[in-house]
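Let's study today's protein:

:::
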Amino acid sequence: MADVRAVALELEDTFELPPQRGLWSDALHRLMQNRLALVSLFVLGALAVVVLLGNYVDAVQRYEPSALGDALPAGRHEAPSWDHFFGTDILGRDTWSRVMQGTLISLQIGLGVQVVVLTIGLLVGSIAAIGGRFLDNLMMRITDLAYAFPDLLFIILLRSVLQGRDWPILGDPVLQMIFAIAFVGWVTIARLIRGQMLSLRERDFVVAARAIGAPGWRIVFQHMLPNTLGPVTVAVVFGIPLAIFAEAVLGFIGFGLPPPTASLGRLVSDGYNYIQVNVWLVIFPAGAIALLMLCFTFLGDGLRDALDPRSR
């Protein structure tokens, strides 16, 4: 018996198994191997640093976004130069500083919308999944009602209701835009969370937790929600470019943030009228929108591949 034990110990030392990684550490390891997702993450981080520094460091922002040119009309429609990296617009305002301000607003709206969407989706999806048949039907009918409205039209109606009124919390136009877009964007997350929880409700570890008398809130927060974070995280990242594009469309058609706030959609709309005179007024803000959407889309693709167990 001693000889057998010695041989077993020797074999264990010879064939040492590699350390096992958990779900999130394995997902992070797989994400680090996705070069496109890493490049996108680096570009987004660099953009965030630049636009945030522009609010506090004058050398980065260079000019006040709404400041007119020093000499009009000589300062109008200037081409990109060292003095004005992206040129100037019809009023002599620096396009670089305005694109920076618009990029910061787009990031705020994209991330803020997903925070509100995730909050509403978690609440509605969790109640529908664990609240019984009546609450499930009630929450799903509310979800179907919200899904039936055309998104863009509903956002415009909400913007019209919120704009120009002294609301206690939603007085800021950026917060109004976040709420308007999020109010029509929570449906997908709610359905996803409900579907994930319904599939987890009959899994062995949930049944075992229920059998030993674990309270409902503990089963939800300790067993169900952590197992839904993978697909929900991917859906949230994919929702950021959709929110950015929705704000850009609203700004382009004239229902975005009020002037002189320089949102990217409004910059494209303003530059479109003078595209024959100064094409840079359209290229730079449209390029910023495209760059943000591409980076978040590539990052979402990387997260989906990293968190999908079927791709391991």
Remarks:
- The longest helix spans residues 216-252.
- The chain has a mean pLDDT of 79.
- The two ends are 40 Å apart (CA to CA).
